[in-house]
Design a protein that fits this description.
The chain is an alpha/beta fold. The protein is about 25% helix and about 30% strand. Helix 2 crosses helix 6.
Length: about 300
């Protein structure tokens, strides 16, 4: 069974002028979003699955018994929700058991650097897990083969290539339509970090068809996930743990700039986007005027 350590930055302080969504939400709404994301992790990967069968027992009676099911992709996930030392969070309002996560209080000079506190926490547990991941508190994963796909991708293309998911949000009434809302960036901007000349497309067979993975013009996904071998390479680059706002803000820099500077970064071709995706939970495209980037 895979052992996975995930670190999630969580900061809440009401601020209508905030550049990120967590400042716009009411505390109850933000708590519901974080709860949904934590619950999805647990239900998708860690909750025991069973099936029922009629069984004849020695006493001559037939009973319904439960047996383990769907164990092939079960994972042991340790989730650390990283906060500042103060009370700028909504953890007391979460609608999930407290033992589903661990609160980690990070000492910071600037609360905007909390994402880098997450990376430093992951580094403290180097060598203890099979996968290390960082994800924003509105990233909702519901694909039970998520980590199997990561392992397959690395086995096909090597540890130098990292696969990031596409983010989508739901819209419509009811919300049954999807939009991949992270707009592509101009190459004269994103090209400062992404080398589109080196291995721009990777292809491999999967399930009777050929999948294509491209170096995206918006690599940001609000998360990343690295195998133990990849995490060793990540940790070897000490700059990855130094707070910076070089790429948009510290939030995007921790999640994405570190990836771009350490690995070749890929996402699935948009025609096959759902192969590897996450939901940007609580975000509606109608909340963002004029196609503003979802952050």
């Amino acid at each position: 069974m895979l052992r996975i350590l995930l670190a999630m930055p969580h900061f809440y302080k009401s601020d209508p002028a905030s550049e990120h969504g967590f400042g716009h939400d009411a505390p109850e709404k933000r708590a519901a979003i974080v709860s949904d994301c934590v619950r999805a992790l647990r239900l998708t990967f860690s909750t025991p699955r069973t099936y029922s069968a009629f069984v004849s027992e020695a006493d001559g009676h037939i009973y319904v018994r439960k047996f383990p099911a769907d164990t092939w992709n079960a994972c042991e996930i340790d989730l650390a929700i990283c906060t500042t030392m103060g009370e700028d969070h909504v953890l007391p309002l979460l609608d999930v058991p407290e033992n589903w996560y661990k609160q980690v209080k990070v000492v910071l000079d600037n609360p905007r650097h909390l994402p880098f506190g997450c990376l430093q926490y992951l580094r403290q547990h180097r060598g203890e897990y099979d996968y290390y991941g960082y994800l924003e508190d509105d990233c909702k994963i519901t694909d039970p083969m998520f980590f199997q796909k990561l392992g397959w991708f690395e086995s096909m293309f090597g540890p130098d290539a990292v696969l990031l998911p596409h983010r989508f949000c739901r819209y419509g009434n009811p919300k049954i339509q999807k939009i991949y809302g992270d707009p592509e960036m101009q190459e004269n901007f994103i090209g400062k970090w992404m080398n589109y000349q080196r291995r721009p497309v990777l292809s491999a067979p999967w399930g009777g068809q050929v999948l294509h993975f491209r170096k995206p013009h918006n690599p940001h996904a609000g998360c990343f996930f690295l195998s133990a071998a990849q995490f060793e390479r990540f940790c070897a680059r000490k700059e990855n743990f130094q707070p910076t706002a070089e790429f948009i803000s510290p939030l995007e820099s921790a999640a994405t700039l570190t990836m771009m500077k350490t690995f070749d970064v890929y996402k699935p071709d948009f025609a096959q986007a759902s192969f590897f995706e996450i939901e940007h939970d609580g975000v509606d495209k109608d909340d963002l005027p004029n196609g503003k980037q979802l952050l």
